């Protein structure tokens, strides 16, 4: 008997960008390899949000790694969630950690980490890192290897 299709509301449909991260829906699908330890990586090299004080755009390169348990993040819903920050004023730390916490709540992974590599604002790049605990020993998790920002 074929596997039951997940009930996704965004994938394959025209879906507007949510007006804020709070209104974004992070959809999940069942992990087809439950019980197998492996890592998943999402890279978002053009993440944008707004400075909460000046309203000027802020830019970051995000790298999200996780080891799934029962569920995976559906990638279109993740793109829409990340895109919803474009019109939101929030500090770098808030954006980076809020993304991690929403993903952890949505998929309850065995492990998750995020590196937020923010481009300079006022001449100072800010990098933010979060992880749920120690990485599992039996899974290959590559280094993020995003180079530190260098001026020209």
Notable characteristics:
152 residues, alpha+beta, 4-stranded antiparallel β-sheet, two-stranded antiparallel sheet, 6 strands
Short description:
The protein is an alpha+beta fold and 152 residues long. 16% of the residues lie in helices and 27% in strands. The protein starts with 27 loop residues before the first strand and ends in a 21-residue tail after the last strand.
Q: Could you give the topology of this structure?
A:
Blueprint: E1 28-30, E2 40-50, E3 57-67, E4 71-73, H1 75-83, H2 92-107, E5 111-118, E6 127-131
Antiparallel strand pairs: 1-4, 2-3, 3-5, 5-6
**So what's the overall shape?**
globular
Radius of gyration: 16 Å
Could you tell me the mean pLDDT? 91
Structural class: alpha+beta
Beginning-to-end CA distance, first to last residue? 59 Å
Count every helix, treating DSSP H or I runs of 4 or more residues as helices. Answer: 2
Task: Provide a descriptive summary of the structure in words.
The chain has helices at residues 75-83, 92-107; strands at residues 28-30, 40-50, 57-67, 71-73, 111-118, 127-131. It is of the alpha+beta class.
């Amino acid at each position: 008997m074929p596997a039951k299709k997940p009930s996704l509301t965004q994938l394959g449909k025209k879906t507007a960008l949510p007006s804020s991260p709070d209104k974004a829906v992070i959809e999940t699908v069942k992990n087809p390899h439950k019980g197998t330890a492996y890592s998943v990586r999402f890279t978002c090299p053009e993440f944008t949000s707004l400075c909460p004080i000046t309203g000027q755009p802020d830019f970051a390169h995000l790298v999200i790694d996780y080891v799934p348990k029962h569920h995976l993040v559906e990638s279109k819903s993740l793109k829409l969630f990340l895109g919803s920050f474009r019109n939101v004023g929030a500090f770098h730390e808030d954006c980076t950690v809020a993304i991690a916490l929403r993903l952890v709540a949505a998929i309850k992974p065995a492990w998750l980490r995020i590196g937020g590599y923010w481009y300079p604002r006022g001449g100072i790049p800010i990098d933010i890192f979060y992880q749920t605990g120690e990485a599992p020993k039996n899974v290959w998790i590559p280094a993020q290897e995003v180079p530190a920002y260098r001026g020209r």
